[in-house]
Amino acid sequence: MMEQLVPEFRTHPLCYLDYTSLCRLSMTNSLMPKAANDDNAWNALYHKCLLVAYMHKFPPI
């Protein structure tokens, strides 16, 4: 059933996962590694981590 979804519908929810969950998902079955290795998911995770690091270094006044 997952393979019938448009690729964006398979990968967009992955943008909300943390690093550990994304890595675990990539090891589940033959379809998930391709989705979990999508650049959009990792890009979103990178930007979340970057924002957290920035906010930690420069807290709002």
Automatic annotation (TrEMBL):
Organism domain of life: Eukaryota
Protein name per UniProt: Uncharacterized protein
